[in-house]
């Protein structure tokens, strides 16, 4: 049933709030403050998901479905999304923080969703679709036609790629330094629960006619199209509603829900602009930080690797500009 999307969304939203799973925060802390805490958690989530996705695909409970490759919109979408994420946070972050009462996140989310609707129902998508690349898969783990993966590009067994990736990831995770913050080891528990919820979400989505796991842009696209009578609400639409609800319930239960309104209302202009960048970028790239990082990367999707590479570069440069004063103080 599509309503299972709501359940998984509530679980994911709760994890986003409780585990502080924030993509921009992870990259910013790693690059500028030498704190790998959240980044290691994300790497562990992706690594475990890669194992789970391939294992359950082998037993026929899901089909791997890499996002179609687009040499034009993947880099461009990654750059725009990376800038927007540095300003306002990732798509999952603004979705969950809206449920926590953060008004800047709500404004960003509104701009993000409106942009998704305008772009996805315009000539822009038709234009970029001309550059889309799909491959026919002969491996039983995959859907018949999808975007290329490392397997299809390198001609190596999926299990070989998975083995190498797991070794590299676990080596980094367990050999990198620990941060000095409290609850240093709790991130491993959060990562395991999130990865497990990710594969359950993929399986439930598969049995509701959609071969993909957690995604935010696709979910809000489904919601806004449903509101305007373009398509019925589906599993992924319920998922994003569940994320908002889950973050709300958890923040209320631990007395952290609050409406936060900035003193300077002009700051909302910045977040409206950020929402536009994230909405435009993630729509043409067919996914944002969640869709590409948490679901695309564990499948070794080429489109996700390219999008995330440009997203990280843009995110780094934008954060470097935003934090330039703070970085100078640290160096001095």
Automatic annotation (TrEMBL):
GO CC aspect terms: plasma membrane
Chief subcellular location: membrane
Alphabetized UniProt keyword annotations: Cell inner membrane, Cell membrane, Membrane, Transmembrane, Transmembrane helix, Transport
Presence of keyword Endoplasmic reticulum: no
InterPro entries xrefs: Sulf_transp_TsuA/YedE
Bilayer disposition of the protein: Multi-pass membrane protein
Spans through the membrane: 6-27, 39-61, 76-95, 107-129, 149-175, 187-204, 224-250, 271-294, 300-318
Top-rank taxon, per record: Bacteria
Cellular compartment(s): Cell inner membrane
Pfam families, alphabetized: Sulf_transp
Family: Belongs to the TsuA/YedE (TC 9.B.102) family.
Protein name: Uncharacterized protein
Source organism of this protein record: Geotoga petraea
């Amino acid at each position: 049933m599509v309503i299972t999307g709501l359940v998984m969304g509530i679980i994911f939203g709760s994890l986003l709030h409780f585990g502080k799973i924030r993509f921009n925060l992870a990259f910013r802390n790693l690059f500028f403050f030498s704190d790998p805490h959240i980044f290691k958690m994300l790497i562990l989530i992706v690594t475990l998901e890669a194992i789970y996705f391939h294992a359950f695909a082998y037993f026929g409970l899901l089909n791997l479905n890499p996002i179609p490759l687009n040499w034009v919109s993947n880099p461009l979408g990654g750059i725009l999304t990376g800038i927007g994420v540095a300003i306002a946070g990732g798509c999952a972050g603004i979705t969950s923080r809206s449920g926590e009462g953060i008004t800047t996140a709500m404004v960003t989310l509104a701009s993000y969703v409106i942009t998704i609707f305008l772009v996805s129902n315009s000539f822009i998508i038709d234009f970029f679709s001309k550059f889309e690349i799909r491959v026919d898969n002969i491996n039983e783990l995959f859907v018949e036609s999808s975007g290329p993966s490392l397997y299809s590009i390198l001609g190596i067994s999926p299990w070989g790629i998975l083995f190498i990736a797991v070794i590299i990831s676990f080596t980094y995770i367990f050999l990198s330094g620990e941060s000095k913050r409290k609850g240093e080891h709790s991130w491993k528990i959060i990562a395991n629960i999130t990865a497990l919820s990710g594969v359950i979400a993929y399986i439930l989505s598969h049995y509701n006619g959609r071969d993909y796991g957690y995604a935010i842009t696709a979910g809000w696209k489904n919601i806004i199209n449903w509101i305007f009578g373009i398509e019925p609400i589906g599993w992924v639409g319920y998922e994003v509603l569940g994320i908002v609800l889950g973050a709300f319930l958890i923040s209320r239960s631990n007395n952290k829900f609050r409406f936060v309104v900035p003193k300077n209302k002009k700051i909302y202009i910045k977040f409206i602009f950020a929402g536009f960048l994230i909405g435009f970028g993630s729509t043409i790239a067919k996914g944002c930080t969640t869709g590409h990082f948490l679901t695309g990367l564990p499948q070794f999707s080429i489109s996700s690797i390219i999008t995330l590479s440009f997203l990280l570069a843009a995110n780094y440069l934008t954060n470097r500009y935003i934090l330039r004063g703070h970085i100078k103080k640290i160096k001095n």
